[in-house]
């Protein structure tokens, strides 16, 4: 993602008329030396300049990152993840928050949010070519034991993810971080608890207990429903927030 902007002072004095191009995720590495003061961006309104530098991170938080997330229930967290480059738009200027997320997309967001890297990422799935957009991120997630392939050595990157399988991946993140979150048996109160596959019971309960995944109307977990792109970002963020509290 690339952002363009130019600055004028609040008294309309132009400081710089040219556009600056800044790669997403590199905000703090790009600074423009201009006088200290309060300025007005043509796109976002007032910006405070500290120590003679425009701190791009402050400004970027107000930038429209995708046309289709405005007013969405997850708008703020989606905007944050896009600006940090943890998530990417599915189409130009469109995140498609309500589309079902694929296994590869989920692995990519998770790997970036966890800053997974520096592992052997040689090919290990028969259907994941090195040219795939999310090859590295899928390998990082798989090598760390967060998401598994299939017995036939495939990964099936375009398959969609069920809510109960997202819970399993969240549980694997806890194991990676060596943190155990509470299980209080709250799934017993849900009307469709029998629909949860046996292998996912503990993981789903952990996610429900810690409000990482929330129930649906009618006290349902809906474990075998597909996860949307917005829901995926939100549950990943909720888990990382919970884990960071445990680390303190």
Protein architecture, described:
There is one protein chain. This protein has seven helices and eight strands; from the N terminus they run E-E-E-E-E-E-E-E-H-H-H-H-H-H-H. A four-stranded antiparallel beta sheet has the order 3-2-6-7, with no helix packed on it. The protein has a two-stranded antiparallel ribbon with strand order 1-4. The chain is an alpha+beta fold. It is 31% helix and 10% strand. The chain folds into two domains: 2-60, no CATH class; 68-247, no CATH class. The longest helix is centred in the last third of the chain and has 19 residues, at 229-247. The two termini are 33 Å apart. It has helices at residues 56-60, 75-83, 103-113, 135-143, 163-176, 201-209, 229-247, and strands at residues 2-3, 7-9, 14-16, 22-23, 31-33, 37-41, 45-49, 53-55. Strand 6 (37-41) and strand 7 (45-49) form a beta hairpin.
- Rg estimate, integer Å: 21 Å
Q: For the largest sheet, list the strands in their spatial order.
A: 3-2-6-7
Number of beta strands? 8
In terms of structural class, how would the helical and strand content be classed? alpha+beta
* Element-by-element helix/strand order: EEEEEEEEHHHHHHH
- Low-pLDDT parts are 1-64
Strand content: 5-15%
Task: Show the helix and strand layout.
Layout (H helix, E strand, L loop, with lengths): L1 E2 L3 E3 L4 E3 L5 E2 L7 E3 L3 E5 L3 E5 L3 E3 H5 L14 H9 L19 H11 L21 H9 L19 H14 L24 H9 L19 H19 L1
In short:
This protein is of the alpha+beta class and 248 residues long.
Essential attributes:
248 residues; alpha+beta; 4-stranded antiparallel β-sheet; 7 helices; 8 strands; 31% helix; 10% strand
């Amino acid at each position: 993602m690339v952002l363009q902007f130019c600055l004028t002072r609040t008294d309309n004095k132009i400081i710089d008329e040219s556009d600056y191009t800044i790669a997403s995720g590199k905000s703090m590495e790009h600074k423009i030396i201009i006088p200290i003061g309060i300025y007005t961006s043509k796109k976002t309104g007032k910006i405070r300049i500290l120590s003679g530098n425009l701190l791009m991170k402050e400004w970027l938080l107000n930038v429209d990152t995708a046309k289709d997330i405005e007013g969405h229930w997850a708008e703020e967290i989606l905007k944050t993840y896009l600006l940090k480059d943890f998530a990417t738009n599915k189409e130009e200027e469109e995140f498609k928050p309500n589309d079902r997320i694929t296994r590869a997309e989920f692995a990519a967001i998770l790997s970036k949010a966890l800053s997974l890297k520096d592992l052997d990422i040689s090919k290990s799935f028969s259907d994941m070519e090195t040219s795939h957009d999310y090859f590295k991120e899928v390998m990082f997630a798989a090598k760390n034991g967060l998401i598994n392939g299939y017995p036939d050595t495939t990964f099936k990157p375009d398959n969609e993810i069920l809510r109960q399988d997202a819970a399993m991946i969240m549980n694997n993140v806890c194991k990676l971080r060596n943190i155990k979150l509470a299980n209080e048996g709250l799934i017993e109160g849900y009307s469709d608890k029998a629909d949860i596959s046996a292998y996912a019971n503990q993981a789903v309960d952990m996610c429900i207990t810690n409000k990482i995944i929330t129930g649906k109307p009618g006290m349902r977990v809906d474990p075998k429903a597909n996860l949307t792109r917005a829901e995926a970002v939100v549950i990943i963020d909720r888990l990382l927030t919970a884990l960071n509290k445990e680390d303190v």
